[in-house]
Design a protein that fits this description.
The structure is a single chain. The two termini are 21 Å apart. This protein is an alpha/beta fold. The protein has one domain (8-276): Ribokinase (UDP-N-acetylmuramoyl-L-alanine:D-glutamate ligase, 3-Layer(aba) Sandwich). The chain contains nine helices and eleven strands.
């Protein structure tokens, strides 16, 4: 694919109308970073599921026809990025999509959204975990948090105290599934949060940022969106992760300053001008 055209990414995730997560985060962030975002909606929600009530419409049955039209148009993508997937069938559809639309220069980013704080999400059955391990094997970059890294590798989870050697082994187990590069996020190190970056062909590094504010929904989507856009644009993965980490930190800080309710995620809109200036 020509290096002179605008980069284009197929972004697979749900669409939540309120709450700043998934596609409502990815579309503006990729656009600000000069990447065309082409949504593949896996479901439609009125708001994310952290609120007490929500409308939900599963889009699984419609995805094959949706993607068939893209095939008829002969579309090609510089990147294919997958986020939250709600069933074994959705994972299978994404596997098929990657096989159909991945060209020799297409970069695949898999964010295996499976759990947090040491626990799988209630929707994640063992067949879904197996399916996600297969999907991870197709990724040029995979971005599990520490919980998800442990689920993928059948390792016991603990919140703190991970040594570099243990993180090396954890990342290597994920790469043995087929993934080329691994970013393990959300590693607690006292007053810091760390991301472990194992990029193919480079020595692993730890990227740390100081904790600020409270944990908020959607921060993983913000992080994955910045990483994906930067990686597809050709940035080294370590730089992409550092950009994403600092942006998420500053978005959390700004959200606290503006007293944004936690369930409303982070007000990344206030800092979008930073993303437009990235070179």
């Amino acid at each position: 694919m020509s290096q002179f055209h605008q980069k284009k990414v197929a972004m697979i995730n749900d669409l939540s109308g309120y709450g700043r997560c998934s596609l409502t985060v990815a579309v503006p962030i990729l656009s600000a970073m000069k990447v065309q975002c082409c949504p593949v909606p896996t479901s439609i929600l009125s708001n994310h599921t952290g609120f007490p009530v929500y409308f939900f419409d599963d889009y699984t049955a419609k995805l094959p026809a949706y993607l068939e039209k893209w095939g008829e148009l002969g579309l090609e993508f510089d990147g294919i990025v997958s986020g939250f997937l709600g069933s074994v069938e959705q994972i299978r559809i994404v596997e098929d999509m990657i096989g159909r639309f991945k060209g020799p220069e297409t970069k695949v980013v898999v964010d295996p959204i499976m759990g947090d704080n040491g626990k799988k999400y209630a929707t994640y059955t063992e067949p879904m975990c197996e399916g996600m391990r297969r999907l991870v094997g197709l990724g040029d970059v995979v971005t599990p948090n520490l919980t998800e890294a442990c689920i993928l590798t059948d390792r016991p989870y603990r919140r703190e105290g991970w040594t570099i050697r243990e993180l090396d082994a954890l990342a290597e187990d994920i790469r043995s599934l087929g993934a080329r590069s691994v970013v393990i996020t959300g590693i607690s190190q006292g007053v810091y949060l760390a991301n472990y970056v194992a990029e193919q062909g480079r020595e692993p590094v730890i990227c740390r940022t100081k904790r600020v504010g409270r944990e908020r929904p959607g921060t993983g989507d913000v992080f994955a969106s910045v990483v994906s856009a930067a990686f597809v644009r050709g940035f080294p993965l370590e730089r992409a992760v550092r950009l994403a980490s600092s942006f998420v930190r500053d978005c959390i800080r700004k959200s606290e300053e503006l007293e944004i309710p936690v369930e409303n995620g982070v007000c990344f809109e206030e800092l979008m001008d930073r993303l437009t200036r990235i070179r």
